[in-house]
């Protein structure tokens, strides 16, 4: 990967972990955090994607249903995530890292299930390290 791709990945990581930390700092309830962040996210994505969305046909019904179900699951996940990062009994930074590590485990497994991309030895080894990391983070 070139430096530009790595820089974009760094920006994405900052965006993905930045909003929950800012949400925790804001001291408002999780519902407000999730709603404001997802609304502004949707508007931003629509603005940057406008030309692409305008130039290609609408996806077929099956694809739209799959995407809507994924969006509903994501919405519930963001609601729960927002609720936990604003809970003063939950250390926000530790929770964000824990979710990030679990995403690293879930992504290849879901990719295996849906796209037949079998995890390799290094990924399997990484799963083990992730479980150890989750154990230490939960203490």
Topology overview:
Blueprint: H1 3-26, H2 30-55, H3 61-85, H4 92-115, H5 121-137
Helix pairs in contact: 1-2, 1-4, 2-3, 4-5
- Helical coverage, percent range: over 70%
How many domains, in number, for the residues?
A: 2
Please mark out the parts with pLDDT under 50 across 5 or more consecutive residues, or reply none: none
Largest sheet descriptor: none
N-to-C SSE string, H for helix and E for strand? HHHHH
Distance between the termini: 36 Å
Percentage of β-strand residues: under 5%
Shape: globular
Write down how many β-strands occur, each being a DSSP E stretch of 2 or more residues.
0
Assembly annotation: single chain
| Average pLDDT number | 92
The helix tally amounts to 5
Cα radius of gyration in angstroms: 17 Å
Structural class: mainly alpha
Task: Provide structural commentary.
It is a single chain. This protein is an all-alpha fold and 139 residues long. The radius of gyration is 17 Å and the shape is globular. The protein folds into two domains: 1-87, no CATH class; 91-139. Helix 1 packs antiparallel against helix 2 (30-55). The longest helix is centred in the N-terminal third of the chain and has 26 residues, at 30-55. Helices cover 83% and strands 0% of the residues.
């Amino acid at each position: 990967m070139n430096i530009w791709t790595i820089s974009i990945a760094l920006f994405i990581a900052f965006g993905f972990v930045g909003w929950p930390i800012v949400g925790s700092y804001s001291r408002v309830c999780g519902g407000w955090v999730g709603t404001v962040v997802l609304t502004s996210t949707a508007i931003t994505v629509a603005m940057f994607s406008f030309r692409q969305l305008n130039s290609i046909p609408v996806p077929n019904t099956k694809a739209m249903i799959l995407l809507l179900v994924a969006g509903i699951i994501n919405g519930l996940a963001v609601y729960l995530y927002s609720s936990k990062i604003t809970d003063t009994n939950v250390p926000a930074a530790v929770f964000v890292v824990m979710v990030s590590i679990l995403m690293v485990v879930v992504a290849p497994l879901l990719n295996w299930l849906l796209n037949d991309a079998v995890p390799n030895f290094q990924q399997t080894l990484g799963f083990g390290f992730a479980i150890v990391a989750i154990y230490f983070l939960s203490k």
